[in-house]
Amino acid sequence: MIGGASSTSESAEYTSVAQEDPQIPVINNQPGESDPPPAYNSSTSEPAEYTSVAQEDPQPGENDLPLAYKTSNNIPSMGEGNQTPCIACAACGIVTLAVVIISVAAIIDGYHEIEEGYVGVYFKFGALQDGVTEPGVHMMQAFVTRTRSVLIRPEEERLHSLEAITKDGIEITFQKIGVLSRTKKDKVVVLIKTFGMDFKKVLIHDRIREDLRIFCANQTIDQVYNEKFLEIVEAVKSDVEDQIISLGNGGVEILNLVIPKPDIPQDIALNYKQVKVQWTEQLVAKQQKITEEIKKETELLKAVADARREKEVLEIKIQERIIETEGQRNVSEINNQIVRDKQNNLADIAKYAKDKEAAGNTALYSPEYVKLQVAQSLTNNTKFFFSGQDSVLGGLLSKILANKK
């Protein structure tokens, strides 16, 4: 070896190298012989012996020796005690770097966010874990756990086109069926365990398709397209909700279902168009009839209103006449009462005068006064004719002139 130590191990080393590579020259040292001391060059520090040998006796294939072999022969050997600390430091650095890389990777893999309106579910080694996480930032076990976000706020989805056959064998197509649904948060894990991540497809979409086909199969094309079209949504929605309760324990609820009118064959659509045209004409005629009836009713109402108005006017006039007549009668009664009262007053006055006169006459025409007046009137007559005491005049005179005894 380089450094002047004599050993048979160097000979064995060179021999083994030579056996591995036939181009490397074999150097055999006899037992007991030692290598000459190396001669160091001031510039390259290479052994002088090898340099001189290479210059004096170059052998074929010597330039083809491996670089590692040349380097090991040209660099002085170091002690084993100096190499061990370097290897330990390098190994320690590699391990530290690996730990740091793994830690960073674990943090990056475990960090995740759940958006608003979603909840997070976790699969560890492929197995769904119980419980969900709310929206926000979360950490999970790295490399062995993966997360999925499940929407729990209302979601509107459009179903693909659906073909159905009616009871009379007509093929129709429903386009753009829309469903608004919402998932209950406490049922998410059970639904995923039972139906997978596409539980809405199983519980809602497929059930809508199935129930809509069954409904069409039990109805004719006219019932589906016209008569019972408004009943389709309620019938399908009710049946799907019952199946959700029985299959999914009510974990999903349908908020709204929209089923547009189906596309029907062109010839049937043309017939429906003609029917609609006739129906429109009938509707126009019916509307015209109604309009005429309304006009006549309007005229009748107008005439009735005019007659009622005239009647009311006449009643008002008659009432005015009645009031006027009653007023005149009241005036006449008042006048009559005035005249009556006046005549009564005059009669009372005349009666009073008569009473006074009678009272005066009663006091004036005493029997003596009457006799006196008779006697005076008799003295004015020159002749008296008596027919006897029994005559009227004789009797009267006898009574007047009779002496009272």
Task: Characterise this structure.
- With 405 residues, the chain is of the alpha+beta class.
- Helix content is 59%, strand content 13%.
- The chain is built from 11 helices and 10 strands.
- It has helices at residues 8-20, 48-56, 67-74, 80-110, 188-195, 199-217, 221-227, 229-248, 266-364, 367-379, 392-401; strands at residues 111-114, 118-124, 127-128, 136-139, 145-151, 155-159, 162-165, 171-174, 177-183, 252-258.
- The strands form 4 sheets. Strands 3-2-5 form a 3-stranded antiparallel sheet. A 3-stranded antiparallel sheet has the order 6-9-10, covered by helices on one side.
- β2 and β3 (127-128) form a beta hairpin.
- The longest helix is centred in the last third of the chain and has 99 residues, at 266-364.
- The chain is elongated, with a radius of gyration of 74 Å.
- The N and C termini lie far apart (232 Å).
Strand content: 5-15%
**DSSP, total strands:** 10
Mean pLDDT: 77
Helicity, as a percent range: 55-70%
Offer a quick outline of the entry.
By secondary structure, the protein is α+β, with helices and mostly antiparallel strands.
Write the layout of secondary structure elements.
Blueprint: H1 8-20, H2 48-56, H3 67-74, H4 80-110, E1 111-114, E2 118-124, E3 127-128, E4 136-139, E5 145-151, E6 155-159, E7 162-165, E8 171-174, E9 177-183, H5 188-195, H6 199-217, H7 221-227, H8 229-248, E10 252-258, H9 266-364, H10 367-379, H11 392-401
Helix pairs in contact: 6-8
Tags for this model:
405 residues, 11 helices, 3-stranded antiparallel β-sheet, 10 strands
